[in-house]
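TL;DR need structure tokens for one chain.
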Amino acid sequence: MKNVVAAALLAAWGSLCLAQAATSAITPAATTWKLATGYRAESFHTQNLEEFAREVAAATQGQLKIEVAANNSLVKLAEIPAAVSSGKVEAGEAIMSGMGKEVPLAGADGVPFVVGSYEAVQRMWALQRPGIEREFARRGLKPLYAVPWPPQGLYTNKPIRDVKDLQGMKMRTYNPTTVRIAELLSATPVDVPMVQVGQALAEGKMDAMITSAVTGVENKVWGGLKHYYELNAWFPKNIVFVNAKAFAALPPATQQAVVRSAALAEIRGFALSRSAAVSATEDLRKNGIKVDPVPFELSRDLKRMGEKFSREWVASVGNSANEIFIPFYSLR
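>> reply
TL;DR here they are.
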């Protein structure tokens, strides 16, 4: 009798092992991706990434897990595209305007006074994306989604009516574009790191700067600047991408889940960006900065400057740039 029972138990155990083996053959093992970003965990971009990761895990029933490494903890911001391209990490986030040398079409984000609203950002991205996908594919990358930072505005220590009022003012600059803007406005470019803005204002070394309301609040610029003009000078976008081979290795159903979650993350990210802009602008008001509408004369002059910048950018990039700006201007 004992032998019969033992044989039955052994047979049952064998059947269970076979069933588990069959299940393992059908269900792929869970995959984990590391996603590197240079931005702090409190940034709305990083919070959006964390939600994206949770949605992917839920949509794939845990078959794909994405671990978000914030604040340069895994790879430095400037090195993230190369790290993802080489397969050092599976996914990453970068600011598109910082990729202009390697991916010229990404430089459209840095052309000032062209995109003036969130709706225009969406139109620009729809025109920009096919070329970005093509260029990224050549580098072994697959774009997932893009989200803009809040728009760049003009801070000054006195009221401004038109570009003539900016002549001779000491304007903070931090890259070639802002230097060129200062020069075209006949202002004096002053290279001041953001962390030193408070000291520069206290010492009278700067009178104006272009940056977002969010950055102004984070750095408490109301000690020396009195006015904020909502120029919407440009909306730099962050782009989230993955190593193309890592994506291709996923089962089709998992790939589709990632793409769907990315589309939701883009919609949510635009909403978060709008909310951050509104909240920060209100914080500027609460701290004594006068938030002014852009005077007509100044708006007109800056739009002309934007057309000049866009022509120069198209000339530097070539025909592929016309795929973006010709239809963008015709739609506008």
